[in-house]
Fold this sequence. Notes:
single chain; binds flavin mononucleotide; 7 helices; two-stranded antiparallel ribbon; alpha/beta
Amino acid sequence: MSTLLHIDSSPLYGRSVSRELTAAFVTEWKVRHADGKVIDRDLNATEIPPINAEWVGAVYTPEGARTPKQKELLSLSDALLAELEQADEYVIGVPMHNFGVPSVLKLWIDQIARVGRTFSYADGRPKGLIKGKKATFIIATGGMYDPQTRMASFNFVEPYLRSVFGFLGVTDATFLTAGGTSVLNHGHDRKAFLAPHLQAVQTHAQTSQEVPA
Ligand SMILES: Cc1cc2nc3c(=O)[nH]c(=O)nc-3n(C[C@H](O)[C@H](O)[C@H](O)COP(=O)(O)O)c2cc1C
């Protein structure tokens, strides 16, 4: 049985482009994995505190030596890591906020990037420990950041996600971007705007997944 971890991070819910596109991916995935399991992790509905000195101390304390308080401090991180480990595949919706990822997604990344769990420094070199997973990032941006344009260097979303997930071992990653969503605030027809992006998501979902026997 396959498991998909579905993460959203847009605060806009019904108006969100990334949420609508990840939902389309999930629908298509379910068609192809009739007995599959989907874990929904809505980061706007998850209370994730910023990491602090105690949390870092707990992470760097060997597991067997952790105090009950340290274990409690890491319990949310453990639960989020369990979702990552349990899933074979990830679909992650990402609105661009201030040229980067939304703060709730950064808070989640801070919880799951854990030495000894998702990366290590074996032989002094960083090694990603999340292996054999496939990730699809669905990004929505108000402006356009096409390569070779003046604005490309302002896009810290895809380069950051590619780097941090690659560092953690997730190298089979696809990035689909719906750029220029700001036209929707100026009377542009939402259905017409979304149509090619929904098509791209569906095509990707169909072509990247084998149909289970
Ligand atoms: C707080 C905030 C910050 C934003 N910052 C940017 C930005 O830096 N660049 C940009 O192109 N669009 C920016 N936008 C527009 C969003 O990227 C755009 O609305 C996109 O569709 C968000 O994804 P969503 O529809 O899934 O929420 C911002 C929107 C919000 C709410």
